[in-house]
Amino acid sequence: MAKKIGILFGMEDTFPWAFIDKVNELGKGEYIAEPVLIDKLEQGADYGYAVIIDRISQDVPFYRAYLKNAAVNGTYVINNPFWWSADEKFFNNALMSKIGIPLPKTVLLPSHERPTNTSETSFRNLKFPHDWEYIFNYIGFPAYMKPHDGGGWRNVYRVESPEDMWAKHAETEQLVMMVQEEIVFEDYYRVYCLGRKYVHIMPYEPRNPHHLRYATTHQTEGKELEKLLKTITDYTIKMNEALGYDFNTVEFAVRDGIPYAIDFCNPAPDADRNSVGEENFQWIVEHAAKLAIEKAKDYKAGKINIDWGTFVTNKL
């Protein structure tokens, strides 16, 4: 009997169908891919998928619940929905600091407004004022302020001074923000990592309009470039092993030859043909299909098949 591989997705319209076609081509009838279709969700019910690739549950809580139920029944979910639910950018930075990954200096800020249903006494453990002199000297300006658990470049601010930061912080209401050193870079890369082993490094220019961000090339050359790409590959695998993500992108800003990890919590990264370009698109489709089939081969009925990163398993 063929093993089923599902994909859960939303508005994107190039990657999912190409992924389905590629799995069905490589699967040769033993592995069959299809869009996940949900007409009911009964607690504990098994809906028959060996593997599901998740591209949308970050925006749809119902889907996240569906995937956790599927994982309890043995489906290998890419990415682990329990870890994805617990994940956040500031923690990821803290974790990377413990495994030797270069990072921008980063500090967490309390929310500008008190969370709903709290009062002044809810914050008796928080010292007022914060040690702003230390924070500003440590981070420096210009800097970037972003939500500690957000994504998709929402609520990201470039701040030029303490006064500018406070003014913009006032716009963030109850969001918990982190402020981060600006890395003035010579090179920038976005890196696909699949299965914690397949790595595809893409020159990337985040200052370009979205549809032109991949329309760039390496600024580093020769042996220095070879060394840089090897370091980026090693860091990327090490980071995803710690986080436990099977489908992720990592972004590096290169300053003075050192790749600083800027963003590495992208478990549903852009894979649209129109933005990533044909070569990158073909790579991600082929390797996503290959990974899904590998996980379906390893699937064992009646057991929990999802796995965890080395942080959770205490094997850093």
Automatic annotation (TrEMBL):
The keyword Ribonucleoprotein does not apply. GO terms for cellular component: cytoplasm. The keyword ATP-binding applies. Coiled coil: none annotated. InterPro entries: ATP-grasp. Keywords: ATP-binding, Nucleotide-binding. It comes from the Bacteria. One of its GO terms (biological process) is SOS response. PROSITE patterns: ATP_GRASP. Residues 93-294 form the ATP-grasp domain. One of its GO terms (molecular function) is ATP binding. This is ATP-grasp domain-containing protein.
